[in-house]
Design a protein that fits this description.
elongated; disordered C terminus; single chain; mainly alpha
Amino acid sequence: FPGGYIGVFGVNSTLCNEWCDLASGLDITNLDVCSVNWNAPVPWRMIAGDYDGAIMDQWAGYLIVLGFGVFFSIVTTIMVKLEQVFGGLVISSEHFNTAGRNIKTGLTASVIVSQWTWAATLLQSSNVASLYGLSGPFWYASGATVQILLFGILAIEIKKKAPNMHTFLEMIDVRWGKAAHLTFLFFGICTNLIVTGMLLQGGAATINALSGVHIVAGNFLIPVGVILYTWFGGLKATFLAAYVHTSVIMICLVIFMFFVYIVPGGTECHPMPLR
């Protein structure tokens, strides 16, 4: 590349300087704008047909949604069946709803991690990390640990005083009466609907951005796998599935952590001298 910028095909020193000036005017300081040829079209944007920005085919998106659901359903169902055969597990209506009341610390911790790793958590923690550095996600997580600690203390006391209770609404009904029970029942149902809707919309939007799968189709297909393994194993199956989810999450976090902190990469814009 005589007289040009060696590193990215088609980007010479003049273009690099222009892009650096433009980036400085837009207050873009954490991206090497010369590392991308902005004049060259990106071929993967049109892979999914009319859905711009998709990085995979539509069939791959449907395969991910249904494949992961079926995979987790099969794995969780096998684990429940093994516990029935070798552990003497008998799934009654009580066990279906309470998982036998013998969930240990490891499964409980994995459920908390799995159920709290939703779209809002990932996006907001990444956002504060970009804005404030390492202190952003640290204090974001610190705020969430307060309610976990308080809930842990409350759960211990409830286990002591009402070991056969199924839901917190039963405690409210006994302690404060029917009016308070109905009030908290209403808010509990609303919370479940809002959180479930948010999770489905976040998952469907992610799959839509990746592969162009229709958001409505994603909303209907994502719960299929959950329904399958819950049907076979009840609450215990959801705990086992959460354990598998958490394992996948931890593997991804370890990979990204080492990639971000170890893999070198230029993040500053360095204008190229004219030759």
